[in-house]
Input
Amino acid sequence: MNPANLYQLAPGQNGDSAVYGILPFLPGNIRSMIAALPCSILKEIEEVRLRQGRPLVLGLSTQDIFLSVEGQPLRQAGEAYRVTPVDMERVIQMISGSSLYALEEELRSGFITLPGGHRVGITGKAVLEGGKVRTLKYLSGCNIRISREIPGASSKILSFLLDVGGSGVFHTILVSPPRCGKTTMLRDLIRQISNGVSKLGFSGLTVGVVDERSEIAACYKGVPQRDVGVRTDVLDGCPKAEGMMMLLRSMGPQVIAADEIGRHEDVDALEEVLNAGVKVITTAHGSNLADLIDRPALGRVIKSKVIERFVILGRSQGVGTVEDIIDGKSMRSTGVKRC
Amino acid sequence: MLKLVGATMVVIASGLSGLAVAGNYSRRPKELRSLRSALQMLETEVAYGVTYLPEALGQVSARCDKNVTLLFSETAAALSSMSGITATEAWETALEKYYPGTALNERDRSVLHNLGASLGISDRQDQIKHLHLAMEQIDNETAGAEEEAARNVKLWSYLGFLGGLVLVLLLY
Output
């Protein structure tokens, strides 16, 4: 997989052209169907879902659409183009770089990250070994999620998360259900914290990123393909718990960022980092704070009141709507509503 | 005088074609051995390096014997172009280009063809199995090819010239 070719097809990787980043991974016929869509639809596409024998679905920010055999957008599935076994075989070959053998770990966790940070979820039949998933076979469905880089996405919340003159940054967790722009927001926060924000008199901090799924920095051979700031070190593809400890010991970060904290070992490592005097910025799945408190591992950290800010994201006014920012000490809203 | 020149040309022509056939017999085991060692390199890349196939093929093409480079470099280039073709298709297209310039026969070609059908589509264990199978088959073919070479190289080198001489005698 040569990224040079991919980036030629995907000039900017941001905004409208982000969808071009995933076209090289689709079979030729589907590729041309999507490429021929009007620009207004292209920039709305968030997901491309392929399920063998069933209609091809494009997930837009507001609704799902289907495509007719001629490539026309449809509301109803009746006349829609159905994904053939050959399409499925091709798409699996393209997203795996014809190298399924190199992706055993990824198949075990059910997703592959493409160059450019686009995540592909995969379903099929699980092959078990000793009660644990060894790999997947008969791969029959995939969901390609387009990752968008939106510089400035976090500008509106930044002033609530920076502690200028104090410790620099508050311990922060971004909370939202899937598809609400958590990772995009986190990436931009990392970039701004790392570069510094002169407008707010904030000079920038050394950030260590544990990018377990290669979604934040979209590293290719270890080098970030996304702008994550000048003072950012990225540990690519590393399990979060181990990665946080490695960064803590080796890179002297002032802030550690990681995506999707949830498992027990992640939370244990998180507590270690919190106690080491390093600031933490992370994300978690949930639609509100109560959801997090109910989760066994995370609930413990939240109840201990060490996390200083919770940013609740949603889609009430489009992807990445900041629904609320909650102060972790008082557990009250900071007064930000819907922006 | 003219007859003598003609006779010499007949002998040379027939001698050279005999040498060409003999050359083919002696090239085949060499090419098979080169193929085998290239597949061995590919296996190392797949099994231990866990390198992506296009990159692995590229590395093999850079290190393997010149007479098999084409097969690996063409496949790697076709896959890296992300044109939407599968590894099997890329391998098959490269094989079409590579095969005519070799001394390999149909059986060798079908070994490579079968290997292509499984390239990159399964887990590591399975890939290793397919590569081993291909290498084993190539080993068998190599043994046969060496025997054939031992039998036929000398035979055809002489046969060409002698056949030419017989022809000259008959025509004289």
